[in-house]
Specification:
Helices cover 39% and strands 16% of the residues. The chain is of the alpha/beta class and 329 residues long. It has a six-stranded parallel β-sheet with strand order 2-1-3-4-5-11. A six-stranded mixed β-sheet has the order 7-6-8-9-10-12, sandwiched between helices. α2 packs across α4 and α7 crosses α8. The protein is elongated, with a radius of gyration of 24 Å.
Length: 329
């Protein structure tokens, strides 16, 4: 066995190297030699055996580190075919990589289309920016590793660094109401965050005395149909909540396909990503998440490696006022 490979494990678990090997070997039903080869990243161990050994070590809370290597963090993100260049997931992935590299941490990127690879590698922590049910199921099996999730949806299972979707919806609704809009629509993502944003807007408009709730459209339908229904319904404003290119698409559909003017015929409130919305004509009024700060806090949490108490850290959004909202009498 390579010298020093179990040094950290011995310190963390107060066991000798031999005792650790025996415990892992017994749980995985393999020899101590096989465990040693897995810990040394030997290519001679079959994949199924390697997975069994790693799973046994994780269940026992053991994390071998070769020599004095830096911490290795798994970054779980969307598959390449789903990621919008310059969009939320793409940008957050970059910010996380920058923050991890500044701390000297190693980075292994696991996309959701190969999520099973998580169970075949050693990590000191995981940060998740993905949404699939299978991804969440697998992450919940990692009992002895810090896992940071960028939403409060699974705060009972992971550390969470997030922007409150319900509060954001309330801010959007109140802002449009205070500018005289009484018939408002929201186009939202088909997920936990999207539905909570729409619900937050509905709640605040109800409290403010709106006669009708906001017209809500989940963007699992073609976007041009949602935009046409917004216009046909007589809405004076729409909040486009997705942080990718959705609001840019809505701009194009309103102006080029329907021949309407912004904000004269329809006011548009966006969610600031990508940053190009400041260069649209007219420049788009947007709510903004502090993505860089969220990424840095997520990295701080995962490297702190504290499993005693799950952290739940909320960041506020910022409103950037530009020229896409018309004030109504």
């Amino acid at each position: 066995m390579e010298s020093g490979i179990l040094t950290d494990m011995e310190t963390r678990n107060k066991n000798s190297a031999a005792a650790i090997l025996e415990q892992v070997a017994g749980r995985a039903q393999v020899s101590t030699g096989t465990v040693s080869r897995v810990f040394n990243n030997s290519s001679l161990v079959p994949s199924a055996t390697r997975s069994r050994v790693l799973r046994a070590a994780r269940e026992l809370g053991f994390r071998p580190r070769i020599g004095v290597r830096n911490k290795q963090i798994a970054l779980v993100t969307e598959s390449p075919d789903r990621t919008v260049m310059g969009g939320y997931v793409n940008t957050m992935t970059q910010y996380l990589c920058f923050a991890l590299s500044r701390e000297g941490a190693g980075i292994t990127m696991i996309t959701e289309d190969r999520i099973g690879n998580l169970e075949d590698c050693w990590f000191d922590g995981i940060i998740g920016i993905a949404w699939e049910d299978e991804t969440i199921r697998i992450l919940k099996t990692f009992r002895n590793l810090p896992v940071v999730w960028l939403s409060d949806e699974h705060a009972d299972s992971f550390h969470c660094v997030y922007v409150d979707a319900h509060k954001t919806g309330r801010i959007a609704g109140e802002y449009l109401w205070n500018r005289g809009h009484r018939k408002i629509a929201v186009i939202h993502d088909n997920d936990y965050i999207g539905f909570n944003r729409a619900e937050g807007m509905r709640r605040i408009l109800d409290e403010l005395g709106a006669e009708t709730p906001p017209l809500a459209f989940c963007n699992d339908q073609p976007l041009h149909l949602a935009v046409k229904r917004v216009m046909d319904s007589g809405c004076t404003a729409v909040w486009v909540t997705g942080e990718d290119m959705k609001s840019v698409e809505v701009y194009w559909l309103v102006r080029e396909l329907l021949g309407k003017r912004i904000p004269e015929d329809l006011s548009i409130l966006g969610f600031e990503h990508p940053g190009m919305t400041g260069f649209l004509c007219p420049a788009q009024t947007s709510l903004v998440s502090p993505l860089r700060e969220i990424a840095e806090k997520a990295v701080e949490l995962v490297l702190r490696d504290d499993l005693k108490k799950l952290e739940k850290i909320e960041y506020p959004v910022q409103l950037i006022e530009r020229n896409s909202i018309k004030n109504l009498p």
